[in-house]
Amino acid sequence: MSTPHISANVGDFASTVLMPGDPLRAKYIAETYLDNAVLVNNVRGVQGYTGYYEGKRVSVMASGMGMPAMGIYSYELFKFFGVETIIRVGSIGSIREDVKLRDIVIAQSACTNSNYASQFKLAGYVSPIADYQLMVEAVNYCEEHSLPYHVGNILSSDTFYTEDVEDTLSFAKMGVLGVEMETTALYLNAMRLGKRALTICTVSDSVLDTSLSLSSLERERSFDDMMKLALEVAK
Question: What is the C-alpha to C-alpha distance for residues 28 and 37, in angstroms, rounded to an integer?
């Protein structure tokens, strides 16, 4: 079957999909880590591949940038293509001094300035949370391999360029680790559809110190610890 954004057959995707934001990162993961990877979607250049990692069938497909894009792709994968688990592998900007460049951030929950949850017509607020077992497996891997990591709340923002950066930094006083743009939509879709989701990010820059930043090529190619972590969780 096909949806407006994915042209594939049921069964083309594995039950677990890794989702970077960047299509080139999806291609890199498939070519670097998966055996016998096959391109199963290329609508709008949002490349999706299915292959094998240490004998386990795994897919990888880009989500694009922002909650609207993540909302579309995660919903279609969950709802129409039999996907049970999505692991976001992305970048995050630190809003705390103790969250350093290239550290791994495992998102237990996601704050937001988005109205994405309003569609569910709930009589109050909902907390977008990760799947607990996936989170525990990710933490255990980081401990076993001595990777620098943080577990906690992140901010999913609708705006990359904001009028007042203090609006973003204000979340740090609540212990929020960093800011990205997709996780709230992913977690809410998973919760609504009875699926599993986890976000694992690598710190690519600092909102506190704009001189600290990885290049786009470094973000595409140098997040190997995060990618291996996600693939191990996916097994």
Answer: 11
Tell me the per-residue pLDDT of 88-121, one tens digit each, with 9 for 90 and over: 999 999 999 999 999 999 999 999 999 999 999 9
* Alpha-helix residue ranges (DSSP H) falling in the chain: 23-33, 67-80, 132-144, 165-169, 183-193, 216-221, 224-234
Is residue 146 very low, low, confident or very high in pLDDT (cuts 50, 70, 90)?
very high
Q: Which of 112, 106, 111, 81 is nearest to 193 (CA)?
A: 81
The Cα–Cα gap between 142 and 136 comes to 10
User: Which residues, at least 6 apart from 76, have a Cβ–Cβ distance to it below 8 Å?
Assistant: 3, 5, 6
Q: What predicted TM-score, i.e. pTM, was given to this entire model?
A: 0.94
Q: Which listed CATH number (3.30.450.20, 3.30.460.10, 3.40.50.1580, 1.20.1290.10) goes with 16-234?
A: 3.40.50.1580
Is 70 exceeded by the pLDDT of residue 72? yes
State the Cα–Cα distance between residues 231 and 235, nearest whole angstrom: 6
Q: Which two tokens stand for residue 199?
A: 């976000």
To the nearest 10°, the Cα dihedral for 123, 70, 35, 195? 10
Question: Domain-by-domain residue ranges, the chain?
Answer: 16-234
Catalytic residues: 205
Q: State the average pLDDT for the chain.
A: 94
Structure confidence by residue, pLDDT tens digits, 176-185:
999 999 999 9
